[in-house]
Design brief:
By secondary structure, this protein is of the alpha+beta class. It has two domains: about 160 residues, no CATH class; about 100 residues, Nuclear Transport Factor 2, Chain: A, CATH 3.10.450. Helices cover about 25% and strands about 30% of the residues. The chain contains nine helices and 13 strands. Strands 3-4-5-8-7-6 form a six-stranded antiparallel barrel, surrounded by four helices. A five-stranded mixed sheet has the order 9-13-12-11-10. Strand 12 and strand 13 form a beta hairpin. Helix 6 runs antiparallel to helix 7. The longest helix is centred in the middle third of the chain and has 14 residues. It is globular, with a radius of gyration of 21 Å.
Length: about 280
């Protein structure tokens, strides 16, 4: 399919038209087919896309698409790019470097658009002649990792983004949970989500954020915090951080993040100045 078609799909609401010719007329009849995002849990997807099935992956951010085949996976889908050209496009999505970072994607299969999340690192076994050494993983709502059997929160955030539900989610979670979202957002290098969560007194916040694009690992430990009063507009949470940053090496530190909101009904935001100062 043409690239422009897939870019149009990312608008989350589109109509394409299939030409159908009837015997009673020489004129083609345009029949509208509506593509809507359908959130499907892993049990349903596992049946919809069985082993060896082929489908299309669409990157939400860039609109680029490539074809894959599911090869294995019992708790999520282990897939491979179908051809060398598909591998090339996938690598372009990751700016030319394979990465464990999660990305929000849409799966196009059987005239359905299903929100999902993928990482971009070849690992394990692979058997297709596609220039991709191994397979990569695609998670859906309800998917878990094969090693731990638990849901991957970073994938979960990207699934919500692909489904168009991330704003609703981050606007209704408590401060400590918002910190979790912030950290996986940094881990995934997602500039758009970072801007929706973070606030800063620095005018060049995004420029500074891009400096920590190569964070390879981040761990945090949230201590017990008191219940936030319904009319509280600010809270502070100390966090133990371990960072591995390109050109900086290991950084282990404890930072206090201040979270604020403008009214009891408004979403919390995280002041990231302490983090940016530490990285810089």
């Amino acid at each position: 399919m043409k690239k422009a078609f897939f870019i149009a799909i990312i608008s989350f609401s589109l109509f394409c038209f299939a030409e159908l010719t009837y015997a009673t007329t020489d004129e083609p009849v345009l029949y509208p087919i509506s593509f809507q995002i359908e959130v499907q849990n892993w049990e349903a997807v596992n049946k919809l896309l069985p082993k060896y099935s082929k489908f299309t992956v669409i990157d939400v951010e860039s609109g680029k698409s490539f074809n894959v085949q599911r090869r294995a996976g019992s708790r999520h889908a282990d897939v491979q790019p179908l051809t060398r050209e598909d591998t090339k496009i996938m690598k372009e999505i990751y700016n030319g470097n394979w990465s464990w970072r999660r990305k929000a994607i849409l799966i196009l299969a059987h005239d359905r658009l299903i929100p999902a999340s993928m990482h971009g690192m070849p690992h394990g076994a692979g058997s297709l002649q596609n220039g991709f050494r191994g397979h990569f993983c695609i998670h859906f709502l309800g998917s878990t990792t094969h090693r731990t059997g638990r849901s991957d929160f970073s994938h979960y955030v990207m699934i919500l983004k692909a489904a168009g539900r991330i704003d609703e989610y981050i606007n209704n979670i408590p401060p400590s949970q918002l910190l979790n979202v912030l950290f996986v957002t940094i881990k995934n290098g997602d500039e758009g989500l970072f801007k929706s969560i973070a606030i800063s007194n620095q005018k060049n916040m995004i420029k500074e954020f891009k400096k920590i694009e190569r964070i390879e690992a981040i761990q945090w430990k949230l201590p017990e915090t008191k219940v936030i009063e319904p009319y509280s507009f600010a809270t502070e949470i100390p966090v133990d951080l371990y960072l591995l940053v390109k050109d900086k090496g290991q950084i282990r530190t404890k930072l206090s993040f201040t979270l604020t909101r403008t009214s009891p009904l408004s979403p919390w935001k995280v002041n990231v100045d302490p983090l940016l100062s530490t990285i810089n």
